[in-house]
Design a protein that fits this description.
heterodimer; A: alpha/beta; Rossmann fold; 7-stranded mixed sheet; 5-stranded mixed sheet; 13 helices; globular; B: alpha/beta; 7 strands
């Protein structure tokens, strides 16, 4: 199939359409709005449901209702909007419904700005709505990968009756790249046996997140956890670059991982034995793979567009076996490859500091950089 | 006496499940449930109806109806109903919401469902109080009415005025049918049933958003006997919440039941 030049938001929207999304509900918010606009045009012309909701609160609850009917449904938003969706996401998790959400993250907290950021890692990967549940979280580093992960997201959502978040950022949403879109899948799909569509010809069904008896909620929480373990066993995804003989390993996801790739390539050209490990599934997180890297690498460098939210997961996996350094830019500032290259060079020159808090050390370096 | 003389004059509608009520003695939720069930039976639409339960006393409404049901977050029932209806436009989708759910936390969702002319039916139970949480002030609490969160009586200077939803929603172009009825005596119960039937007929015919507001009792949290509570609706609620047809679109007016 021919490749097309498409903006990330539009490409993700079209990917969802081709994956058979039957209903979309959203609310305008930069830097995600083109996704909603694409849906506004395409969904009605295909005879599928599109509603511009009155708020993200309403949008996610429309998604909740539509998901109860057993068809492929989704929403998309950006950080402040996703905060508003947390109520609905918790209910969706509690009702065990498949839903896809695309989060095009921007700088925060608060109103913040509309620049690309990874400041919502903890909110999406570790946090979210109230209660005990885990969403599947996938992080693309290019428009093509965003397209591929959106399609995968629908499959995983259905397979595990789970929320799947495609955690993009303003870069992925806004930049144009050549992409190969997937084949159009049939929108008519088998209806799952839990769907609520009117009880004609069968017993009535109720979909709810209520388990008023704690003992029943405990059983439900345990079921969710058991399902999550299956997800952990089967759905770890990551990409490795120059890792065979890497002594220094850079870790970064999404846009930060992609920028780090440029730096790693340059460092390789300079003869530095460095590789890149880019988690694609942030939840489930590739702890075992990071742990294995810690057994053989001499040093690790975590690169993020936040204050080191994934860093904590890396440190947990590394268990102090190897020095870990951190480099992050904040609040919507995107690092240049040169900044990361300088970090790689610094680590390659040594000596590698041991017993120093990587975040504290980075704060000093960043303060100097920003103040100058 | 022979079998031929035995006549069933009263029974549970088919659309109601055989479930002991969880509502308080004297509460009119049961009456409202029965009226909806009778209408679903009479229209023969149980098999194609999906109910959306709210948060509040009727959070367990799904236990009592023989149709498919979902359970919404507090105030979000109209949004959830929208999601269902947009995927399944040929099904009958209704929400059942109390005053805190619909007129306070869910004000945005109900207004915009109406603004879109969302083809759903809303049964709105107005008993001027938060029942499930134990009798706090509702958006429909009357001026001067004592609740646990307005212990000296609702002070309009501080806590504002009751919201009249049937009138408010009647101003929206997307609304096909907006009326207020009451459940305080048999005559009004009959009128309420007719309105509920009309509201479902509006949806069946695709004539837009339909809502029936039902003045209801909460003997427990009002601190009254059931009989006193019915009297209180008549004497105190009716003057603030007048019964009437606030919007009947021309197409709806032609429906004959």
């Amino acid at each position: 199939m021919a490749r097309e030049l498409l903006e990330g938001n539009m490409a993700m929207a079209e990917a969802a359409i081709r994956a058979g999304v039957q209903a979309y509900f959203g609310y305008p918010i930069t830097p995600q709005t083109e996704l909603l606009e694409w849906m506004a045009k395409r969904m009605p012309e295909l005879g599928r449901a599109f509603v511009q909701a009155e708020s993200e609160v309403a949008a996610i609850n429309m998604v909740y209702g539509a998901a109860c009917t057993g068809v492929r449904v989704m929403s998309s938003s950006s950080s402040p909007g996703v905060s508003l969706m947390m109520e609905g996401l918790s209910y969706i998790a509690g009702t065990e419904l498949p839903v896809v959400l695309i989060d095009v993250v921007r700088g925060g907290p608060g109103l913040g700005n509309i620049a690309p950021s990874q400041g919502d890692y903890n909110q999406i990967v570790h946090g979210g709505g109230h209660g005990d549940y885990h969403p599947i979280v996938l992080a693309p580093a290019s428009v093509q990968e965003a397209v591929d992960l959106v399609v995968l997201a629908f499959d995983l959502a259905e397979k595990y009756r789970s929320i799947v978040v495609v955690l993009a950022d303003g870069n992925i949403g806004q930049m144009m790249e050549p992409v190969e879109l997937p084949e159009m899948q049939p929108v008519e799909r088998p209806i799952p046996d839990w769907a609520v569509r009117g009880c004609e010809g069968r017993g009535r069904r109720v979909l709810s997140s209520i388990y008023i008896k704690p003992e029943e909620e405990e059983v439900t929480n345990l079921r969710l956890l058991q399902r999550w373990q299956t997800v952990q066993d089967n759905e770890i995804r990551y990409r490795e670059y120059f890792m065979d003989d890497a002594e220094i390993v850079v870790l970064g996801y999404g846009t930060a991982g992609r920028i780090a790739f440029s730096a790693v390539r340059q460092a390789r050209a300079e003869g530095i034995p460095v590789g890149l490990f880019r988690p694609v599934s942030l939840s489930p997180y590739p702890y075992a793979q990071v742990k294995a890297i810690a057994q053989r690498a001499k040093a690790m460098l975590v690169v993020e567009m936040n204050t080191g939210q994934m860093l904590d997961d890396v440190l947990r996996a590394v268990e102090g076996k190897v020095p870990v350094e951190f480099y992050g830019r904040l609040g919507g500032v995107v690092p240049y490859p040169d900044e990361i290259l300088d970090e790689i060079r610094r680590i390659a020159r040594g000596p590698i500091s041991i017993g120093v808090d990587p975040r504290q050390a980075w704060m000093k370096r960043l303060s100097q950089l920003i103040m100058n | 006496m022979t079998d031929a003389t035995v006549q069933v004059v009263y029974s549970r509608p088919k659309a109601l499940t055989d479930t002991p009520t969880t509502y308080c003695p004297g509460c009119t939720h049961g009456v409202a449930h029965r009226l909806i069930a009778e209408v679903l039976d009479e229209m023969g639409i149980v098999g194609k109806t999906i109910g959306v339960a709210p948060v509040g006393c009727s959070v367990f409404a799904y236990n009592f109806f023989e149709c498919d049901f979902v359970e919404a977050a507090h105030g979000r029932a109209p949004a959830m109903a929208t999601g269902i209806k947009r995927v399944l436009p040929d099904r009958i989708v209704f929400t059942y919401q109390g005053d805190g759910d619909l007129a306070s936390i869910g004000m945005a969702e109900i207004m915009h469902a109406s603004a879109r002319g969302e083809n759903i039916t809303v049964i709105f139970i107005n008993n001027a109080i938060y029942g499930m949480t134990g009798g706090q002030m509702a958006p429909t609490t009357l001026p001067g009415q004592k609740t646990t969160s307005s212990p000296l009586g609702r002070d309009v200077e501080q806590a504002g005025f009751p919201v009249r939803m049937a009138e408010v929603l009647a101003t929206m172009e997307g609304t096909g049918y907006s009326v207020r009825r009451s459940l305080h005596d048999p005559k009004n119960v009959r009128l309420a049933k007719k309105a509920i039937r009309t509201a479902f007929e509006v949806q069946k015919r695709g004539l837009g958003f339909s809502i029936v507001e039902l003045l209801s009792t909460c003997p427990t949290n009002w601190g009254m006997t059931p009989v006193e509570a019915l009297k209180w609706v008549e004497e105190h609620m009716l003057p603030v919440f007048p019964l009437g047809d606030y919007k009947v679109s021309p197409a709806v007016a032609e429906i004959k039941i």
